[in-house]
Structures are given as structure tokens and as C-alpha cells.
Fold these 2 entries.
Entry 1:
Amino acid sequence: MLPPLSEAEAAALAARIARDGYAILPDAIPADFRQEICEELERLERVRPGGDIPPAPFTGQVTRRWFDLLNDGEVWQRVAVHPWILQVLPKVLGEGFLLSTMGSAVVGPGEPAQPIHVDDGVYAFPRPHPNLVCNTMWALTDFTEETGATRVVPESHAWDHDPHPRKRYGTVPLLMPAGGIAFVVGSCFHGAGANRSDHDRVALTINYCNGSMRQQENLMLGISPGRMMGFAPELQDLLGFRTCKGAGHIFAQDPRREMNRHYGGSDAQDSYLERRNGLHAERTARPPA
Ligand SMILES: O=C(O)CCC(=O)C(=O)O
């Protein structure tokens, strides 16, 4: 069990994120929690081998990305509500922020560097703008130059343009031993580094957004309702059971009440959740050229 950050620690971290566009929080994932997550990733490799998307230049040729994780093992419910992240993000994204997307980023040996990009490009708003997105990169193995630590362009979050695909930027690596979590705001230029080691760089990318923005992964439609009703209230809030400045209502109220009326008592055992693993090969087949 992690003791809470002090208010001063949380404020200092938020100030660094505001200044640089990113900040590292070391020793944020206790060893037993890390072990549980790694075992769950091994289980996913067995049931949905190679990750949930086919190899591609941007997302990686030998990088395994699993999504829709809240429909998988229970451990993901605890990942989403990491207490230190929940302490820091109100200072970055404002109250009422939402979980936006959860994915793994298991970068295999030999993977070249990912193109430098921003995570809030999905909104296509003119820059600079208030923080819409904050990613949290979870280092489950050491993030080093050799293993392909995420690379960021310091202070780029304040720039008035998105990265140019062919331009080379001055990047720095987010070096952290396994167990660290790095916060990277959505407008900060960044990308996974090249993995020149002989082993996987195992990471999660757990991404949150301002509470009035659409979530990047369609969590509201994707998560089985019966299952969602069993989640902790703070996770339900992150999924949209609470309105943010009036956005996201049902009958002009927080959705929690209507969700309980509609789905309270629903069966958490949704047979589709097993069938979806069986659809893996179909889902990840490369489209015909
Ligand atoms: O894996 C990383 O280091 C960065 C991942 C990332 O930026 C992305 O997939 O959008």
C-alpha cells in the first residue's frame, strides 16, 4: 500500500509538468504490483498473442499493445486508479478528468524509435491550449537509452505547432528504473526510443483527459456494463459516472443514478468477453494491400 504523496510533493510534481511538459515519479509501482501486471501481460500474450493491433510503422513492428484492458484481469482496475496519479492529475487536467485510454507498450528488441508525436492530436485544437490530455508511462522494466526509454522534447508543450513528421528534434530520454511512472502532457512532443537491447522494454501507457473531452478509447461503449457496475466508485467516476461541468449527463444528472437503475444487478459474466479473445486473429489480420 503506497502512502499518499504530501501536498507539497504533488504540487512540486505538477509544477515540473507545467514547466517542462513532463516529470518522473520514481518508485511509484510497488514490486508485487509490478509483478502482478507483468503476469497479466504474460496471460494476454497467451490469449491474444502479439498484441491487439497488427504491426505498423507508428505503433511498432515488434511492439505488443493490448487494449480494452478493463475487460481483462482485475489488476487493470487498480492500475487505472493509482493513488499518486489521482492526486497529481487534478492539478494538470482539472477536476473531473477521465480515463482516456489504457494500453501496454511492450517494445521488443530491434524496434526502431517511434516517430515523435503528440497525444492530444486527436482533438486537432490550435496550440498552445490548456492541457487536454496527460499520459502516464509506467516503467515495468528499466527505462534506459538502450532499452528505448520514451524520449521527450522539453518545453515543447508550450509551442504553437504540432511536430513535423520529417523534422529531427532535440529529445531527452525519460530514464527511470522499473517502478517509475512518467507524466507526459498531451501536447509535449515525444515517442518511444529505439530498443537496442536484447530484451523487451515493458511499459504501460495509461492516458487521461480533461473531463469535457471525448475519451480516446471508447471505454463507455466497450466495457461490459455488468462488469462496470462492480468497479470501485472512483474508477466509475473516471469512466464517466460523474458529469464534468455538465458534460456527460443522463437526464441532466450524474449518470451514476441511471446506470444503477439500468444495470444494477446485471450479470458481470458477459459471454462476449471470452469470445473476444477468439476473434483476435480476425481483428489483427493485416488488411489486404
Ligand atoms: O512507448 C513509449 O515510450 C511511448 C508510447 C507513445 O507515445 C505512444 O504509443 O503514443
Entry 2:
Amino acid sequence: MAEEQQLFKITIDGITIEVPQGTTVLNAARMIGKEVAPPAMCYYSKLEGSGGKCRTCLVEVAAGSTKDPRPMPKLVASCRTVVMDGMIVKNKTSERVIDARNGIVEYLLINHPLDCPICDQAGECHLQDLGYDHGLAGTRYEFKRRTFVREDIGPYVQLHMTRCILCYRCVYVADQLTDHRVHGILDRGDHSDISTYVSKAIDNDFSGNMIDVCPVGALTDRTYRFKNRVWFLKPMDAHRDCDKCCGKVTLWNRGDEVYRVTARKDPWGEVQEIDGKTAWICNTCRFEKKKASDWTIEGPTKIDRHSVISANHYAEKVQPPDPLNKVLFGRKPLLLMDIHEVSKVNTPDIDLSKIPGPATSTTFIDRDEAKDIEQAEAERLLINDHKELP
Ligand code: SF4
Ligand code: FES
């Protein structure tokens, strides 16, 4: 009989959850939800060995465990720290974490160009989102930024090394998904560079997945470059029979035109699991099937990531985060009031198209009150009429 898995209790930003032994702090936070989950630029749950490089997921451990409740002296990378029973962790509630994260974002942006207005990743870039939450208005860096020439690595992928944050995700994709990796991180320190071995092309069937895992716009789709902005496109779930991959994708359409094809993403921006497997897609589906007739459309994609791409596509209900619920003792916050319940204005039973002339304040007042006003007005007119009689 299988041994019962031990559960460990962890409290993150005041919210307690029980998770299986061996779960990382980051994944425990993701189980609670977006309100407490730290950002992650290099960790990717579907790629073995990822994490531990970017330090954006740092958290404060206020108590190590029930057995040893001493706090950890330094902030730790939540993607690489496993939960201990009784652990207490602070993420958004820790000033030290926020301060460190601001510093990490500033560091990541030292060499990153301000390319957002022309970058294909704009709107779905995790660094852009982090920049909004933690970035400074200006840079304090006085030295020359690293510059690189753009490189076509294979027929479908272009590398903008200036935008790369050296997260290693694309290297893990090449290692774990393709037959033989021909690119990697060359050199060390501030000379580090993603490149192919003696300018070899990346032409493996699954190489396009590197574009999906890149958290910034360093690896871009050459078939989509500069064709459109992602927030103008309508994402649709679609599938086709494919002998190489699962064939389940997101089409990014404008009208009937398919601008790009990507794998389907989960709320963390990672490729989704479908039927128990990570739904990586092949290059044929991604780059060569750009006609709507190539696909069976399933319906609009549910975007549940907080980003500009969720504008008009946001599928989640607005819910107060848990700590707010506690303060409000189950009451609804004012933000979520039903306007019809609290205001006499805009009552749904008044059909504006049926009232004569434009709506005025009397349109919305209480019916009995309206009758009284109408009667008073009629009486006033009658008295005036009598006054005017000779
Ligand atoms: S190219 Fe993208 S995925 Fe690869 S290391 Fe750089 S940022 Fe990471
Ligand atoms: S996500 Fe943890 S160090 Fe990068």
C-alpha cells in the first residue's frame, strides 16, 4: 500500500496552507493564489533544474519550522527552498523583501534596453510587469550598456541578446525537449551571452518553445515580428490533428487572420498541462499553420494573468483577497457594491429608450414621489391659468 504523504503547514503573508512534504515555498504560495505568490523570472515548473538564478522570488523566513522557530538571517529564493512544518514566510508583507525586489529589478534592468514600445513581448513580458510594480522612474546606472547585434538563430527564431536576463530557461528547453542542443550560455560574468555553437542554426522541431519560455523579448518569433501588438489580437483556443505534438494551441487572431500561434499558458505564464502532460507544441503548428482553416476553433482563451493582454479578456471574478475578507468579516467591500441596491439612480426597471425626451433627475426618483411632483406641477399650472383669466 502506498505510504500516506506527510503534509506540512506553512503560513505565507498570514495565510496558512498544508502542502505535501518536498513542496517549495514558491509552489506553496502559488497554491494559495496570486495575492501571495512571489514573481518568478527563471523558475519554470515544467523544466527540470530551473530556478535559483534571478532572485526575483526572494522571501523572508520569519520562522524556520515548529521545531526550530528561529528566523533565517538572509532572504531566501522561494523557488529553491522547501517547506518545513510550521514555517512562517513573509512575501508582500515584508519591507525587506520589497526593498530587495526593487533592487533586483533595478539590477535586471541595468542592461535591458527600454524597447517596450517596439518589442513583440510587450504586454506579456514579466519584466515589464515587474518594472511597473518595483521599478524606479529613472536609472542610476552611468556606464555603457552591453550591446549585441541581433542574431537569427534558425529560420524561425531571432535573438535580441540585449534583452536577455540570462534565466537559462531556453537552454533547459533545448536540453530537455530537443534532440541535441546547439545553443547555450557562453562566457561568464558580464560577458555572458546566449549563442549557438559556431553559428549553428536551431532547427529542431520543438525549438519554438524557447520563445514561449523566454520571460522577456529576447527570443522572438520571426514569423510574427513587428506584425501587430498583442493587445490588439484576440486569443482563441484551437486544435488540429498533429503527429508531432498535442496540437492544442492558442491562436492570436485579428478578424479571421491568424497572426501567431503559441502554446496555451497557465496563470503563471507557463505552458499548460493538458491531459497530464505539458502541452509543448511543434514548429509545424507554431510557424506553418497560419490559416484559420488549418484549425478547429474551440472558443476564446481565458486569460487569467494580470497583464495588459487580459484587458477585455479577463476571465476571473473580482474577489477581495483573503486578508481583506478577514477585516470585513464577510461583508462585501464598497468597491463591489451593486449600484442598483444602493442608489435610486440608474434603476434597471426604467427603460431609457421609452421615456419621452432626455432623462432628468425626476426620471429616477421614487414613483410615488414622482406622482406627487406631477400633481403639484399640474395644480401650479391650473392656478396660474386662473390668475391669467380676465
Ligand atoms: S534568451 Fe530568454 S529564455 Fe534564454 S536565457 Fe535569455 S531571457 Fe532566458
Ligand atoms: S525564480 Fe527563484 S531565483 Fe529566479
